[in-house]
Design goal:
alpha+beta; five-stranded mixed beta sheet; 13 strands
């Protein structure tokens, strides 16, 4: 997850002032992330004006949050794009410190958005550049996994933050639970594969078609988008492609269970959220 360059989307090397601004933006976001305080908005001098500036700030978050192991995609459903006022998905780094395994008790404090999402995730065996064909993408993927994302935002009103600020905020990255590999996942029609998400007594259903029409389309979008920001989709990365269902509200102490395929035949991801202290 190292950038091959720091060139922005216009192909112009960012100035020292741009880099200082990006670092200040990342610092403000990380302070909110670690203290649990919410930002009404970034200070005007630190507010990214473009997606390139937002992504530069996101990359500087890595110096504070520690290593990343892949990418999440926000707003891969039309409803999600309309919800947060963007016209395309947003990529965000998945940070190792917020990664969890099925069966864990996942911290619930600081989850301002307080929702869970059932997602298809890809694990890459090879790096991919922009313009890869569907067959090249398929060859580059090692496995398809079941997953649950617990997205979050450092903004009090993330709906009004705007795409550059949301991109700086790691595209609403929060905690993430990578579930089991789906048997034969590379050969499945993921768009037609059903999913179910249950939080305590609330259950919603969906399918891979909610994710840009097909999770493979979301992966292709990411492979094409990252080089515009001076990086690329690397071997070993995990890519979670966006919610397949309506996000379900969570609460401290809740039990979360996502199933994939009819009656969970392709896999299940289950965990509990930590209860309130005291």
């Amino acid at each position: 997850m190292t950038a091959h360059s720091h060139t922005d989307r216009s192909g112009i090397e960012p100035s020292a002032v741009d880099l200082v601004r990006a670092d200040g933006t990342a610092g403000a976001l990380w302070q909110a992330w670690t203290t649990g305080e919410r930002l009404a908005a970034l200070p005007e001098l630190l507010r990214p004006r473009t997606l390139a500036e937002g992504f530069a700030a996101q990359r500087r978050l890595s110096e504070r949050a520690g290593p990343g192991y892949g990418w999440k995609l926000a707003a891969t459903a039309q409803a999600g794009q309309a919800h947060i006022g963007v016209d395309a998905p947003l990529p965000g780094i998945l940070f190792e410190r917020f990664r969890h395994a099925p069966g864990e008790v996942v911290p619930a404090d600081g989850l301002h958005m307080a929702v869970a999402e059932a997602e298809f995730a890809f694990r890459m065996r090879a790096s991919v550049d922009a313009g890869a064909s569907r067959e090249e993408l398929r060859t580059a993927v090692a496995a398809v996994h079941c997953a649950v994302e617990l997205p979050d935002s450092r903004f009090d009103d993330f709906l009004a933050a705007g795409a550059p600020s949301l991109l700086a905020d790691a595209a609403c990255a929060g905690r993430f639970v990578l579930g089991p590999e789906i048997p034969g996942g590379l050969d499945l029609d993921l768009a037609a594969t059903s999913t179910s998400l249950q939080v305590d007594d609330e259950i919603v259903t969906g399918s891979g078609a909610a994710v840009l029409g097909d999770p493979w389309s979301a992966l292709a979008w990411l492979a094409d988008a990252l080089p515009q920001y001076g990086t690329r989709l690397e071997a070993g990365a995990v890519v979670t492609t966006g919610t397949t269902t309506t996000p379900v509200p969570t609460r401290a102490g809740a039990t979360v269970r996502a199933t994939f395929g009819e009656a969970g035949a392709l896999g299940t991801v289950g965990f509990t959220l930590a209860g309130r202290p005291g």
